[in-house]
Design brief:
The chain has 412 residues and is mainly alpha-helical. It is 80% helix and 0% strand.
């Protein structure tokens, strides 16, 4: 029996997608002003990569424990806890800007990072609700909600900065607004029922799969298809966020206004999610590994463009391409990881992938900030290009050596 008539999968998908709209709005503000916020509060320009690194390290620290908790307690309670962390983080950051306290700002950034690392695991909830032959499309449907978060920059945050001098006082209200947006996300999450994990169990039962004990993580990561998917996920996510999080500072350093950053970041988010429905369908049809290779290659071409681009228009084009390449490679990698895990393993495998991705992204943000400060944008862009191009070549060589695209895991 199909699980669709028995469970409100469409309703849950819309609610999870809308939750990622709210997360996307909060993340857009964080990306646009994190570097500036910390530099203004501390007065130290050399730490411009520290703000993004805090987000990513906190996200890395939260991802695997949150994934394990999701496998035990269900998806919704853990995702809701992540949303609460985001609300608190935005409010603490706003307070830190008001009183010019670096300690409070860093604490707020850490809480926001925990929210990002936790709520992004909605991908596991999406994978739970769809059978393997529709799984990439299901993940894409939920990720598609993030596209609408791109509108929050121009519509909500840009007016809050218009006509104001960029100082700590000007940052208070935007951070409070981001907390309000995440509060809406919490409400949406609490409306998701039944828990997607219950739907995954029902789908497995309908397919005749016999429930088995979840395997240890060290065993799961050795399954065919998992190593290449992990490499693609880490390279695409870390490469994308390290560039995205430093873009705000780069745009301002090129002589543009803070408000212009939201134009660039909004188009980047459009690139990340505008074609996600089409891409999910293609990945289901053509295979996971070709998507991983093609996406990473497009990311490399896009970051290479930053060597020459300085205008808002062309920087936006480059960031759009970066987002689109991430979309292709990341959906392909996430789908393959979901395929290779049982419902009781899916949260920890995707959480482990996010841990590696966020930790690597944090390291790249710090190194990228130093490279940009000491060597300029060309060194930063070339390093980012190499970071995604080398894994693409390795995965291509794996395919050429006879490691085929693997079929979804089915335990009978």
């Amino acid at each position: 029996m199909d699980a669709e008539p028995r469970f409100p999968i469409g309703r849950n998908t819309i609610l999870l997608a809308a939750t990622l709209t709210c997360l996307s709005g909060m993340v857009q503000l964080a990306v646009a002003v994190a570097t500036v916020t910390l530099v203004l509060v501390t007065g130290i320009e050399s730490i411009l990569g520290l703000g993004p690194a805090i987000f990513l390290l906190a996200a890395a620290g939260a991802a695997l424990p949150a994934g394990r908790a999701m496998d035990r307690a269900g998806r919704v309670p853990v995702l809701a806890a992540g949303a609460c962390s985001g609300i608190a983080g935005c409010c603490v950051t706003a307070l830190g800007c008001e009183v010019e306290s670096a300690v409070l700002v860093i604490a707020g950034f850490a809480l926001v990072g925990v929210a990002i690392g936790t709520v992004l695991l909605a991908r596991a909830a999406a994978a739970d609700m769809y059978p393997p032959h529709r799984r990439a499309r299901g993940i894409s449907l939920v990720l598609f909600g993030s596209l609408f978060g791109a509108a929050l920059g121009p519509l909500v945050f840009r007016p809050l900065f218009a006509g104001k001098e960029l100082d700590t006082e000007a940052l208070v209200l935007p951070w409070l607004a981001a907390g309000g947006i995440m509060a809406l996300g919490l409400v949406l999450l609490l409306l998701v029922r039944p828990d997607p994990r219950a739907i995954a169990v029902a789908l497995a039962h309908d397919a005749g799969d016999v429930p088995q004990r979840a395997a240890p993580l060290r065993e799961i990561v050795r399954r065919p298809g998992v190593p290449t998917a992990l490499v693609a996920a880490v390279a695409s996510f870390a490469g994308m966020v390290s560039v995205m999080n430093l873009t705000g500072y780069i745009v301002i350093d090129h002589g543009h206004h803070q408000a212009d950053v939201f134009t660039v970041i909004s188009l980047h988010i459009v690139g990340m999610y505008a074609l996600v429905l089409v891409i999910g369908e293609l990945i289901d049809r053509l295979g996971r590994r070709p998507g991983q290779i093609a996406g990473l290659a497009l990311m490399g071409l896009s970051t290479l463009g930053l060597v020459w681009f300085q205008s808002v228009v062309w920087t936006s084009v480059s960031l759009f391409g970066l987002g689109l390449g991430w979309n292709v490679s990341y959906v392909a990698a996430a789908s393959e990881l979901a395929d290779r895990a049982l419902p009781a393993e899916r949260g920890k495998l995707i959480g482990f992938s996010d841990l590696l991705s966020s930790f690597t992204g944090a390291s790249l943000a710090l190194l990228g900030g130093l490279a940009y400060s000491d060597l300029g944008v060309a060194a930063f862009a070339l390093g980012a290009t190499a970071f995604v191009a080398v894994p693409a070549a390795w995965i291509l060589l794996q395919s050429a050596a006879g490691a085929p695209d693997v079929r979804p895991l089915s335990v009978k």
